[in-house]
Amino acid sequence: SIVSIHFGSKKDSDFVGTGVVIDGKGHIVTIKRFLSDYNIWVETDKGEKLDAELLGVDSETGVAVIKVKESLKPVKFCNPKDLAPGDLLFIVGNSFGLKNGISISVFSGRRDDDDFLQLGNSVLPGNSGAGVFNSNGKLAGIVSFTLGTSIFYGAPEIKSLLKKEFRIRVSPKLEVSRGMDGPGVVLPQNRMMELANEIIKYGKIERGWLGVFIKEESGEIIVSDLVDDGPAEKYGIKKGDIIIKYNKKDVQDIQSFIKTVKETKPGRKVQIA
C-alpha cells in the first residue's frame, strides 16, 4: 500500500511526501528530501495516523526507511527489466494532498550511467517517493527525482484498468495538471530493496572506496592522484597508473568503474590491473 508521510503535530503537520509499504513488518520506503527525524508519522489510505521511526537514510540515492509498529499491506513487485519503452506506468502518490492520486506516464528507457528508469514526463509535486506501478498493479520502482508537463488522467478508456488493478474510482473527466520541470526518474524496485534491506539491517549504507582520483584520456582510466594512506596507496597503486581491469573484468569508462567500486563491500579484497 501507499502512505503519506508527515512530521510534526498530527493536528498541524508538514506534508513531506509518499512512502511505499514493502513488507508486513511495518517497513516503509521513501525518498528523503526534507524529511526530519522529529515526530514522523504516516497516514494510510484508510485515514489511520501512525507514529513512525526513521531507521536510516542512504545519502547518495536519498532512499530512506521508516517503520511503524502496525502491520500494513505490502505492495507486490514486478521485474523492472521486463519493461519496454512505451509501456504505461502508473504513479500512485499524494500530490496536492490527494490520497493515492494516480498520474500516468510512459516508460522512456533506462539511463546508461546509473540504471535508473526514466519517465516520459515529469511528476506532480508531493510525489517524491511515490510508487510507480506497471499495468498489472505491481511496483516497478519509486519516484526518485525530476530531471515537463505531468497529466493527471481520468479518461474513460483507462477507468476500468484503474478500478480493476488499483481499486480506485476515477472521474470520467480528463483533468490536466502541470508538474515539475524535467522528466521523472525512478529508482528500480530491485535496487530500492537492496538499499532498504541494508538500512533495515545496519541503519546505513556502506560503499566501497579506493582512495584514488581518476581521469579519462583517450578511452583509458588514469590515476591522477591518491589519497594519503588510502587503500590504493597501501597496495602499491601509483599516480599515472592505467586501470584496465577490476576484479578480472575490463574497465569500460569512468562512470561504470566508479559504480562498480561503490557497489563493492568495504573490506573485500579485489584485483586491479
TrEMBL record:
InterPro entries: Chloro_Bact_Ser_Proteases, PDZ, PDZ_sf, Peptidase_S1_PA, Peptidase_S1_PA_chymotrypsin, Peptidase_S1C. It holds the Pfam family Trypsin_2. One of its GO terms (biological process) is proteolysis. Keywords: Hydrolase, Protease. The keyword Transmembrane helix does not apply. Residues 199-254 form the PDZ domain. GO terms for molecular function: serine-type endopeptidase activity. Belongs to the peptidase S1C family. This is PDZ domain-containing protein. The lineage of its organism: unclassified sequences, metagenomes, ecological metagenomes.
